[in-house]
Amino acid sequence: MIKNKYKLSAILICLAFFSLALFSSAGFHWNDLKYSGNGIIADEIPHIASGYYYLKTHRYFLNPEHPPLVKDVAGLGESIARPSFPDITDVSEEPEGFQRYGYPFAGTDFPSFLERKNTQAYFGQMYLFDARNNPDRIAFFGRLTVIFVNTLLLFGLYYIVSKLWNPRAALLGLFFIATSQFSIAHGSFVVIDFMSGLLAIIATAGFALFWKKYAEKKANVWYFFLASFLLALAEVSKFSSVILPPALFVGGLIFVLTVRRTWKDFFKYIGIYAAMMVVMFFLITLFYIPHVIGMGNAEMVQQLWDNFPYDSLPQSLMAYLAPMVSMNIFTKALVEYINGVLMVMGRMSGSFQLTYFMGHLYHSEGAGAWYFPVLYFTKLSLGFLFFNLAALFFLARKSFKDRGGISPRFKKFAANPFGMFLFLFAYFYMVITLSSTFQIGLRHIMPVIIGAAVLTGRGVDLFWEQKIWRKIRLKHAFMAVGAMMLVSLFASFPYYLSHYNLLAGGTWSGYKVATDSNYDWGGSDVRRLADWMRDNNVREIYTDFFADVELPYYLGEGQHNFNIEDGWMPPSGSYIAVSNYKYMNNTSSFWLPAEKKYSILMKNLAARVGPTIFVFKVP
């Protein structure tokens, strides 16, 4: 009866996540999606297009720096809309004087040399804004399937954690994940971070479940295959999951040596782990095969050369990779996976875009070690942070009160494999992340955040009856603070992407901490601007946006590109719409004179459309 109560509660939480994600994303006017909900953001352009491209061509030249899983899910949903698809021609070299087509796209072809160059954003624009297509309907079905799968994974995480710990701990962890504005935002777009973060933690749980059963002498082929399968799913969702196998190897080794302490068990562990890795890579290869069967061998070898990180790895490695392309379909698929890993290694070696953080602009040097900690404490809800710190406090206090030295406490920690595996994975992940200068959003540590939520749920469960003050226990605090978290969640609808907590001044001021995917992500409020123009009968507008959508499609023929740094101003009475990303980069540029900064127009602010677009009226 009690287990059923927790399961029903988990289902209700998952349904709430699905509903909030769907309606914040699509809005309520499904008969006219052009003016409803969140606009198609920058990363969605290539992801939405690539998912359907893989389905139609079985080629993986576009967006290979991200694994296919999330894009495939979206592509299956897009097929419901029956979209038209650009014809990929056999033009293998760029003709002299070649110019790309511009909007509106009508019956245009996509040359294969642009495909091989991974011109993904342009292909996405051609696909979505083909005159025969409805881009918002395509995006709706792509998002719908992604939201649905994310919801199923949330319940899957609850289920497997309840087997490792108990239903209440699993439910608390689910609550902290699913009621987070940060989770709902990233779980409602066709982007890879949330699904990959969930899968990384689920894979960690599957690995822990196998070794837990091993210690109980109940392990079998089913648990072995489940752990291998979940690891493979994590790997085909995001390449940063390559951190999982070494982190789990260390955790598993500590666990086995703590529980058994014999050479026989040591070698048995090595053998089982190696077999698990073989199965994992076999499953990864199987998953990639449908994506590469349409690729020519010579073209794929050229793709390898184009993406090889020469600064990080010896060029001699290509002598082994290139021949694998033509060996057989299995090695060919494996090489395509390796190609993606190599691309991420090259990208992690340096930051090649502007990063605004706490009033300053950073380039290749990155924003520093405080970037992720500051965002963690300003983007996530205050209620979650309260329980996060409370669980750590009670755990630390209990550790110091326990007698018997470090060894018994360490054994107790190591004997519960899931908590230890989560901790080690988060540690490995943050060591790698903090050593990189690639900092464009808190989403890059999504697996750590989801892992922290699961661990916080376990901590609150352990100290559920702990007294906080007089007769007030932690469970009473959860009832009160949890209710406030829900109020905050509904109050911040539908602006979950831009949400900041009160430590940063709230959603409408949080952009002063950090922008990019933390706040705007290239076009989230474009549909709302189109709706504002329609309501206010504005037919002409000047725009300075970080967005890959075709603005004339939404804003009409009266849309004109503008940049105040060019030194001219539209006629008096004109409207200028500036995205938050562009505004902060411009006003934070110390090298620009005052007359070339948008701050001179702030006294002429006519409207703020959503949190992310400033509309000025030229005096």
Please outline the helices and strands.
Elements: H1 2-26, H2 44-57, H3 69-78, E1 87-89, E2 109-111, H4 112-116, H5 120-128, H6 135-164, H7 167-178, H8 181-187, H9 193-215, H10 221-235, H11 244-259, H12 263-292, H13 297-307, H14 318-325, H15 329-348, E3 355-357, E4 360-362, H16 371-379, H17 382-401, H18 406-414, H19 417-434, H20 446-462, E5 467-469, E6 472-473, H21 474-491, H22 526-535, E7 541-544, H23 551-555, E8 559-561, E9 575-579, H24 580-587, E10 605-609, E11 613-617
Parallel strand pairs: 1-2, 7-8, 7-9
Antiparallel strand pairs: 3-4, 5-6, 9-11, 10-11
Helix pairs in contact: 1-6, 1-7, 2-3, 2-5, 3-6, 6-7, 6-9, 7-20, 9-10, 9-11, 9-19, 9-20, 10-12, 11-12, 11-19, 12-15, 13-14, 13-15, 14-15, 17-20, 17-21, 19-20
Brief rundown of the structure:
This protein has helices at 2-26, 44-57, 69-78, 112-116, 120-128, 135-164, 167-178, 181-187, 193-215, 221-235, 244-259, 263-292, 297-307, 318-325, 329-348, 371-379, 382-401, 406-414, 417-434, 446-462, 474-491, 526-535, 551-555, 580-587, and strands at residues 87-89, 109-111, 355-357, 360-362, 467-469, 472-473, 541-544, 559-561, 575-579, 605-609, 613-617. With 619 residues, the chain is α/β, with parallel strands linked by helices. Strand 5 (467-469) and strand 6 form a beta hairpin.
Tell me the strand percentage band. 5-15%
The unreliable regions are: none
What is the terminal-to-terminal distance? 68 Å
Rg over C-alpha atoms, rounded to the nearest angstrom: 25 Å
Mean pLDDT: 93
Q: What is the helix fraction of residues, given as a range?
A: 55-70%
Q: How many helical stretches?
A: 24
Number of strands: 11
Biggest sheet record: 5 strands, mixed
Shape: globular
In order across it, which strands form the biggest sheet? 8-7-9-11-10
Query: Would you tell me the structural class of the helices and strands?
Result: alpha/beta
